[in-house]
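=== RUN LOG ===
request id: a7f3
mode: sequence -> structure
chains: 1
length: 548
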Amino acid sequence: MADETIHSIMVQHNGRWDASGRYVNFEVEGILYDSKSKFSGLVTVIAAQLGIDTTIQGLEIKYIVSDRCPPMTIHNDMALDLIEIQDDGGSGSNSIQSVPSHDGKTDKLNAMVPSVDFEVVECERNGIISEYRYEFVAEKQIYKDKETIVAVMKNYAFSKQFQFWVRRSSSKSYCLECPADDCSWSFKSSSLNDSGLFKIRSFCEQHTCSLKDRIYSRRQTTTAVVGIMIMDKYEDPKRVYTPKDIALDMRKQHGLTMTYMQAYRAKEKALNMLRGDPTESYNKLPSYFYILEKTYPGSVVSLEKTAEDRFLYAFVALEPCIRGWEYCRPIVVVDGTHLKSTYEGTMLIASTLDPGGSILPLAYAIVDSENDASWTWFFERFRIAFGGRENMCIKCGGNKEQVRRLYFALAKAYTLQEFSELMGRLDTIDKKLGVYLFDSGYHKWSRVHATVKRTWTLTSNIAESINSSIAKAREFPVCKLMDYMRQLIETWNEKHSEERRNAFTDLTNEYNEAYEDNKELSHRMTVRASTEFLHTVTDGMKRFTVCL
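=== RESULT ===
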């Protein structure tokens, strides 16, 4: 007596479901299935027969109950127990019984295994086109989506100076033809295997109509098309390319007359396509920070939101900067710069000088404005990332109008006597300045009154240098701006590392050149030691006291 739990099943695979719910273009395999092994056993038998590694490739199993019902998905033991085994000559009833048949006849199951047909193989070989400015159009090309293929054809018609009509446009097809009645020019494309990909099925690029019929018109000359063509002009944020320049170039290169507003809208669309939507950029910050932490392990990133789950603050300190901080002087210069994007805001930047005298950005953050709350949040994150150091000094950016020649002399004075003489001269100009500087605290800006070793870092010039480097990038959406800062730090670090590797002296080029210049000058000076550290240096009629 045959084992009543063993069933022969015909498996249809490597096909697809058509619009009417039928499984078509499939291949057939036969298997023997033991019903005692349940759903897991069925999956194992089908995978073994079809040569599928289920740890890599998924397997979806569907059962056709009847022609009048949609296919039933089998995903657990219960679904499998509900199937009534039918043969090809069955009654076609759509009733489902829980008692399995034991007549040994063949069941029909549809195993939805991802098909590797010719079109997919061709897609992998030729590549998927995602560039809006792609200029070469040919049959069998595959595009990322319909939006891409529409943009490419508009750009193609613009560059070839002709017009077309859209004969059919839907989520699954996009067909074009020449407006002339008897012209052979045509273009047909459709979705690939009902996916988002679009493939060019046929393309006849030869026009048989008269030049008058296909003469260039502005039908496809939208601001979006012009925006695509000028995108490369804005890849460098420092480049200035105005709407007036756009209109002039379009006239010279394509004979197209554009108004200033049309050129301006084309510029805005080019920037939006290149840099992304400002609103959507904030939504991308969590995923961007996740990738940043994976790319730079050890980095400190923080994203602060309001009670309404809206963006408030964002902080980044990259691991190379954190590691480099321990080799720098304990002096940090912080400053803020106003952003010019849609939602504005302020970028706070902390930086220092590395041992070679080059600027090293330590951390940066985007906040709503420079206020007590945002600065407190920034320094709290900074302390988490960099910790504290003995005699650490933080220099904040101030009003540039106060940075005058006399102020620099006061700040650099080595002795109290020299400081007092200079302060007297300042009082003769305006006594209010002396009062202001006294109230602000001499120890905050004067070398002779300093309670910490500030060495040469007397101003926030290094912060201003960074602000100058990102001047144009301040218009970027927030996510693009954060990545621009990351690339800037990478570029500077690589440049400075290359300079160190190519140095053949103990000092870097900057300090070595200063040493050589001072060496020549020192030959004309006389030095007399007063104490172990105090020396008197005479240069002609000038006399200096140097403390080592």
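=== NOTES ===
The radius of gyration is 37 Å.
Confidence is low (pLDDT under 50) at residues 84-126, 216-220, 398-403.
=== END ===
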